[in-house]
Amino acid sequence: MEDMLFYDRLQFAFTITFHYIFPQLTMGLSLMIVYFKWKYLRTQIEKYNNAATFFMKIFAINFTMGVVTGIPMEFQFGTNWAKFSELTGGIIGQTLAMEGLFSFFLESSFLALFIFGEKLMGQKLHFLTGFLVFLGSWASGWFILATNAWMQNPVGHEILENGKFVLDNFSELFTNPWLLPAFLHNQMASVVTSAFVMASIGAFYILRDKHSEYGRLFLKTGVVFGLISSLLVAFPTGDWNAKNVAKYQPGTFAAMEGIFETEEAGAEIVLIGQPNMIEKKLDNKIAVPNILSFLTYQEWDRQIPGMDQFETEELPDNIPALYYSYHIMVGLGTIFIGVMGLALFFLWRNKLYNIKPLLWTIMFLVPFPYIANITGWYTAELGRQPYLVYGLLRTSDGVSPTVSSGNTLFTLLGFVGLYMLLGLLFLTLVGKTINQGPTPQKH
Amino acid sequence: MELFWYIAIGLVLTVFFILDGYDFGAGIIHLFFAKKEKDKEVITKSAGLFWDSNEVWLVAAGGMLFMAFPTFYASVFSGFYLPLIIVLWLIVFRAIGLEFRGQFKYQMWKDIWDKSFGVSSLLLALFFGIALGNIVRGVNLGGVDNGVSVHEGHYFFLPLWDSSFSPLAEHPGVIDWFTIIIGLISVVTLAIHGANWVILKTNSSINGKLKGVIFKLNIALTVLTIFSLIVWQKVNPNSLDNFSHKPYLLVFPLIYLTGVIGLFFINKIKNNRHAFILSTLIIVGGITSSLASLFPVILPSVNDMHEHLTIYNTAASEYGLSVALIWGIIGFILIFVYFIIQKRLMSGKIDHMDYGH
After folding, report:
1. Mind listing the domains of chain B with CATH numbers?
2. d(C-alpha B166, C-alpha A128), whole Å
3. Could you give the ipTM of this predicted complex?
4. Which of A31, A235, A252, B111 has its CA 20 to 30 A from that of A320?
5. Please, are residues B14 and B58 in contact by the beta-carbon 8 Å criterion?
6. What is the separation of C-alpha A393 from the centre of its chain, rounded to a whole number of angstroms?
7. Could you tell me how far CA B26 lies from the centroid of its own chain?
């Protein structure tokens, strides 16, 4: 039984982590493509249009990957989490089906039109198709976040005697106080990823002295979008989310911040330290007193309950993983603000394109926004443990009752192998596109 | 309300099989009949341009099934765990083949991905047929063994096969001789459908030959269909009850029959679009007839202990289904609009369309 739960969780974690490499880029990138397209409509300068076309190619590769890795996500609710699906399908089925009907079709139809239809429609219509792709991909984020928000903070349902969750109030699924901050935080984080990808490609072109006109455009646009989004991720959206966790999941809040013991006179904020689960303390701790109380409640001496205030069965089952995920996300977010701030400063002084160390840094930073996005999601998901539906349905009660651990391990290994191949394909395709560059091909 | 969602999901699934069916079929045709590089390339393209927007329909069907019939979704997806995951792998693997093929110019490279595209298309067609076969045959709900139920009454788990490979065995597996027959019907149908698609959308040099292929496959389909109807009676004795009680349901088998008979005149059909419509009719008729023979059951129980899963005992709450009706109608109208816009733009032969890079 223990093994079964472990493999089911590992398979979901592995497949969703791999899947989320792709949508986080497409959501942010679609916004930036709309920006280029809009610039082109305003200025009629050809390079903006070429930039939009180039990034739509990268978008399309990521979208394809998102589709093929997304289908297993949807199926896994049924295959590995049958009990969860049976009990909550009447609720989260709503938002998931809406995602399919409203956003997926929109995105895929207009993506094809954007790529193949530029010559057949005018530029204004082409801009509109780009905008609809953006709308579709963000709507997709909205519905997935609505699903997750219900699992984090269940609302609008009643529980029947047989344990089934039944929808009671549809609109509450979308007015859930968890949803809006989580959605905005997630979308801003996905803009961070796309901005870093764009800036990184720009830096690569400049350093390589190839397509450098586009290199400068990409770097500039990436840095501006990157700084704005990095700031918005931290404040107000990140702050707002943290307050929500403190309010709705206080045990999770203590665990992710690494507060083992309640301090009467206000909680400190931990910058560095390793959770020691045996002695229930942080090793090698560096912390600043009272800051956490201030950040969370704007009161220096406000008491924040530590993990000692909660039953072990109510706390997340993997506290170190939760703690590290959260701190990696926050740490990386801070670095992003610093690097992008510095880059914007030099851009303003007209020096950025010549400062090689900074260009190299930006180029190699590209994996880190992905890591930050994914550890952010780990924070949300590990933080919700040991529940699937917070406070109401335990993760161990959601697995498929008939699927044995041997079968799950078999399929997990299969996914690992197949996704390695898929990752290779992805890198080949994106690498080729970047290498080819945005200069229009002459036929 | 259950009935509405049953029909809506059936419709979306049928659209999925019509659309993704032609690119599965194109893969099967590619595997057996495309010999020249130019033909291989253009057939790959005729699938490669469209497969991802076609598979959106599968995602939509899955989401709707989850929303409207959560108990069925949970039961079937966990019960058919292994075959379903294998289908997922094949879908991913097939996509890899389609997207990888054009990336390098070496012949050997192309050969590898050609085969992977063809074989995974073939296996997917087979598995989808086998899935349908399992649904009409029914499963051992509750995992009853010697009169004792091992699971709750709406759960089960099927191994890939039982050593007897018989649908009449005490614990039949996913693959038995009956489901294989349905699987073969699916393969042949989709091959015909794919051949029609290739003729319709490309100028490949095998287009002329494919009409003869369709004719021969149609003979095979007729034989398989007649054979399956005979054994169907043995496997699920109640399968004709619905048709005798409600004779208007016979319209579905008639749709199937129209398609099959029509395709015997493939060599006389001038407009390729008409031929494509005929193979579409076979798919529509095949799926709807199978569903109609079971209705309102969606998964029969083969033991006496547990009742069949029906659209009524697996549905979500009335309130949920009614709310979903409102957004569902809006959603379907939008999808219809996108679909029309897209089809108008992507009509015609695709030989000169830019695919890949």
Report:
1. 2-316 (1.20.1630)
2. 56
3. 0.89
4. A235
5. no
6. 24
7. 14
